[in-house]
Amino acid sequence: MQTYTKSKTLNLYQPQNGYCYNSDTHFLYNFICKNLEKYKNIKGNLLDIGSGSGILGLLVARDYPKLNLNQCEIQKSFQFLTQKNSEVNGIENTLHKGSIVDYTFDKQFDYIVSNPPFYHSDVIKSENESLKIARYSDSMPLDQFISKSAKILKNNGKFFFCYDAKQLDKIVEYIGESKLNMEAVQFLHPNASKEASLVMVYARIGSKSPLKILPPFIMFDDNGEFRDEVNAIYDKCATHSIKCDVTI
Hints:
This protein is α/β, with parallel strands linked by helices. The chain has helices spanning about 25-35, 55-65, 75-90, 130-135, 140-150, 170-175, 230-235; strands at about 10-15, 45-50, 65-75, 95, 110-115, 155-165, 180-190, 200-205, 210-215, 215-220, 240-245. It has one domain: 3-Layer(aba) Sandwich (Rossmann fold). Strands 2, 3, 4, 5, 6, 7, 8, 9 and 10 form a nine-stranded mixed β-sheet that branches. Strands 1-11 form a two-stranded parallel ribbon. Helix 3 links the parallel strand 3 (about 65-75) and strand 4. Helix 1 packs parallel to helix 2 (about 55-65), helix 1 crosses helix 7 (about 230-235) and helix 5 packs parallel to helix 6.
């Protein structure tokens, strides 16, 4: 069983009616931490793309305090929540308001992290506009997401994201076109008998390291209970959700 030093609780305001963060972000955060273990001095500029309520960037910045947190978000309601949650948790950030695809940054980044929207918008037609932007890839197409991230990374910059495992072929294609090197992947499975539903990716600019395929991450045991590793990750994240009305 994994053991962690207890982290400071991260209080996160979430919309009462709308998209809220899910477990994917916790598992991606754990994947990021695992891949950063070999580096002794984590510092520089961090960008969280599609920050939503701010959870991923805030988790990373909380536990790597030498990083300067930047967050990019297109929706006004989530811009408000990103900023509010940064202030509530005492973590300084720079908020970039707009779409990553169109935004012009005045700097490059040492680290980029993202839990981007990856569902196709024609899967469910009845979702409201806010949920569509948060969940579906129309607002941030995969090819543009990867190519723009590569352009704003510094040399040797590190890029972490998760995506629909069924789109791995496209991920590999676009990463290759963007001159990134895929360093590590890990597949998330609901249980040992289910196929992968999510892939977590670590890529780097200016790297020639061979790809590491990490052991599968299994969420539930044979009894339908969270595995010890999952519970340990939740303990490490120490997030507390607070529902609130957001009207912008």
